[in-house]
Amino acid sequence: MKKAAIIILIIGLALTIFTTVTYFTKEKVVDLGELEITANKRHNLNWSPFIGLGVMAVGGVLMLVPFKK
Length: 69
Prior knowledge:
The chain has helices spanning 2-17, 49-64; strands spanning 20-32, 35-46. By secondary structure, the chain is an alpha+beta fold.
């Protein structure tokens, strides 16, 4: 369970540091018979750094609480 807690802590740290992910999709702009013009459309995925802090808190609790086998 300690390994899972460490992984959750690392994910929480990454969510705190990187608060935006940008990705692109292709969008058809013009379609005239055989002529096609496409454009890359930019999308941003944003979240608050507090989400990463919350995930790190969950990982810390999992690391500190002893589990019985």
